[in-house]
Design goal:
The complex is a heterodimer of chains A (about 325) and B (about 375). In chain A, about 30% of the residues lie in helices and about 25% in strands. Chain A is of the alpha+beta class. In chain A, strand 12 and strand 13 form a beta hairpin. In chain B, helix 1 (about 5-20) packs parallel to helix 12, helix 7 packs parallel to helix 8 and helix 8 crosses helix 13. The chains are: A alpha+beta (about 325), B alpha/beta (about 375).
Chain lengths: ~325, ~375
């Protein structure tokens, strides 16, 4: 069990015994006030994200893996090669050390998978009842790939939209693990670092105009935001959207629209129509992109709107969800 | 055997509607149908002369304002944990919603079944756990099972605030009032699994309105609509069941028996429709100790509509959401005024989410990632 960490002896031991052995690398090791990194000549991408999730550990992942992947993916979809991350961990008094160790191990594993170092870090302990178990902030820097020229303003009607994998797995897995949920599912979170997949996508030579990873707000939130930004309509086909049978049925059971459920480890790319096949092939050659599909296209229909052509051949509007979707009654 | 595709069904419906040569008004009784019709795009495929009216079948929407206020009052008590289905937490009452109460420190827990609330009570004997028991015959048997479980395990800190409603009395009340023209009813598959297709016989016999039971898949809904339109075209009124794979004539006898063991039909207050005799469920005498109203000495206050809100008319099919002045202006899913905009099964929420409706006042929402 974690006791107070007031910056003294206990804090030192926490870092020396629990964090450093697992995350050790040449930049973190000196434990200086700042990490000193080699500078690259390309433009620098810089991002930060804070992570809270209940439960801290869920099927297929945990808050640590989520925190590493979230920042790595924000860098990767901006067209950057992630170089280093910072890690700030706020722990609640009483957090079992066993859980802490498992989460740090998971952070180390995810960082290794993404080929990125935790270059600097910080820990704080807050009183019991004031920290939700654990809160993690990660920031990251990366060097911009020169082979990509991502710019939403280059998106034109006719461009194709590629989604790299199954939707709704993460959100439903976390929901099923949350306290109070009686049903058990086989769903596992698919949280994963996307930089490897995106490297292959970039190497395909396809003219990618835009990438983003759909997370909270789901695919619907991403598309609705994009539609507002580019002032063009987006048309997607329900039959083309990759979704597992289990996820479809679980969402149905809960009365949730799968396109509004949170995702991790997925990427949406807008690509020049003539390059869509090439991009799809590159995605499918990577383990994280096997289920990739062309799910729709940009159109000039006015006013700008996101529409789905449904399984039944009908049409309906896709809107950004308004906060956490609530399971229905019957 | 070749299966009829949705496209073929749509063509057959268009053909049958044009033969009838008039506007046909069908009511989908249940909110699950309302949402499924939008979400599947079926609504966009139907001819203009076919009007689908949403009925009083969204559990949250029909719950009276007095009930919401009672739930909020209970949430304000130090010793009480409220367990509720997620849909209920945002419904605004006279003094804010359960969500507001939670922000002020009230213990409000979203559960997915009544039995989760019983487990919570067992695990927290120092708390008085009140389950907000709302919904139709789909959820009432589960509440009944939970009460029986609590009794069997001797759990004395579990209570229910019963807002359960029955479908058939509401349909009868609507037809008796007679101010909403309805040509036929699309009846919900899940409720019918419990009550059985035969339960609709009085609607057909007493009011001469065709009833067709259908599931929630696009083919099912289209088939149900086609059968209704054909009956209406021929001037018939019969009871049909296109969902016989799941719905029998008698329904789920075991589930009903469980419900009848624990509950007795009682008068119930519906939003805007007032008190409908025998349309609700209250605990039978031996189970009264589980009744939150009895234990806490409460009564459900009178019903009222928030100012300007027309949810009461929406749930009776009297107006469509965009006829309400608040719709998509002051009332949006992010800041709902009435329950029809809160519940995922609510007619206003379905119109807002899936219809071609632009927010009328610009709302700025930050992107989160």
């Amino acid at each position: 069990m974690l006791a107070h960490g007031g910056g003294g002896e206990l804090t030192g031991r926490l870092i020396a015994e629990h964090f450093l052995p697992r995350l050790r690398n040449q930049w973190l090791e000196p434990l200086g006030d700042s990490a000193v990194l080699p500078w690259t000549s390309s433009a620098l991408a810089f991002t930060t994200d804070s992570h809270v999730v209940q439960p801290l550990e869920f099927p297929g992942g945990d808050i640590g893996r989520l925190a590493v992947c979230g920042t790595v993916n924000d860098l990767a979809v901006a067209g950057a090669v992630p170089l280093a991350l910072s890690l700030a961990v706020i722990m609640e008094e009483g957090l079992p050390l066993k859980v802490l160790d498992r989460i740090i191990d998971s952070i180390a594993a995810a960082a290794a998978e993404a080929n990125v170092s935790i270059a600097t870090g910080d820990t704080k302990v807050v009183e019991r009842g004031r920290g939700d178990g654990m809160i993690i902030n990660t920031a990251g820097v990366g060097s911009l790939r020169e082979s990509l020229s991502l710019d939403k303003r280059r998106i034109i009607p006719g461009d194709a939209m590629v989604l790299t994998g199954l939707i709704a797995e993460h959100g439903l897995a976390v929901m099923s693990a949350r306290e109070g949920l009686a049903f058990q599912t086989a769903l596992r979170s698919d949280v994963a670092p996307l930089n490897g997949l995106i490297e292959q996508m970039a190497a395909s030579g396809a003219d990618i105009r835009f990438m983003r990873d759909p997370t909270r707000g789901g695919l619907a939130g991403l598309l609705a935001d994009l539609c507002v930004d580019i002032r063009l309509s987006i048309e997607i086909e329900e039959t083309a959207i990759p979704i597992s049978r289990t996820a479809r049925h679980t969402a149905e059971l809960l009365g949730l629209d799968p396109v509004t459920v949170a995702n991790e480890g997925k990427c949406v790319a807008v690509v020049a129509a003539e390059d869509a096949g090439k991009l799809l092939e590159a995605c499918r050659a990577h383990p994280l992109g096997r289920q990739a599909a062309i799910i729709g296209r940009i159109t000039d229909a006015a006013p700008p709107i996101v529409e789905m052509i449904t399984d039944a051949g009908g049409r309906r509007v896709v809107q950004r969800p308004y906060g956490e979707e609530l399971p229905r009654i019957c | 055997m070749s299966k009829t595709t949705p496209r073929q069904l749509v063509e057959q419906i268009a053909d049958a509607v044009s033969r009838a040569d008039r506007t046909i008004r069908l009511m989908e009784v249940c909110g699950t149908h309302t949402v499924a019709l939008f979400r599947s795009g079926v609504k966009s495929l139907l001819p203009n002369a076919l009007r689908l009216i949403s009925g009083p079948g969204c559990p949250v929407c029909v719950t009276s304002q007095g009930y919401i206020d009672a739930a909020c009052d209970l949430a304000g008590r130090e010793d009480v944990t409220i367990c509720t289905y997620g849909d209920m937490v945002r419904v605004p009452g006279r003094r804010g919603s359960l969500e507001h109460r939670r922000a002020e420190g009230a213990d409000v827990l979203v559960v997915y079944s009544a039995r989760d609330a019983v487990s919570h009570a067992a695990a927290h004997p120092d708390r008085k756990v009140v389950f907000l028991a709302v919904g139709f015959e789909t959820t009432a048997p589960a509440t009944a099972a939970a009460v029986l479980e609590a009794e069997a395990k001797g759990i004395t800190n579990f209570f229910i605030l019963s807002g359960h409603k029955l479908v058939i009395p509401a349909m009868q009340a609507l037809l008796s009032a007679g101010d909403v023209p309805i040509d036929g009813f699309l009846c919900p598959g899940h409720v019918s699994v419990v009550i059985g297709a035969n339960a609709y016989a009085p609607i057909v016999e007493q009011y001469g309105k065709p009833c067709v039971v259908a599931g929630f898949e696009p083919e099912q809904m289209l088939k149900g609509i086609l059968h209704l339109v054909r009956q209406i075209g021929r001037g018939e009124s019969r009871l049909e069941n296109v969902y016989s794979a799941a719905v029998t004539n008698e329904g789920n006898v075991a589930a009903r028996r469980c419900m009848e063991q624990v509950f007795v039909p009682a008068d119930s207050i519906w939003r805007a429709m007032g008190t409908i005799p025998g349309s609700g469920l209250e605990l039978r005498e031996p189970f009264r100790p589980f009744d939150a109203l009895v234990h806490f000495g409460l009564a459900i206050g009178p019903d009222y509509d928030p100012p300007g809100c027309r949810c009461g008319e929406v749930i009776q099919g009297k107006v469509e959401p965009d006829q309400c002045n608040l719709f998509a202006r002051q009332c949006t899913p992010a800041a709902p005024v009435g329950p029809c905009m809160v519940s995922s099964e609510g007619t206003c929420a379905a119109w807002y989410k899936y219809g071609r409706i632009q927010a009328k006042s610009p709302s700025t929402q930050a992107r989160s990632s």
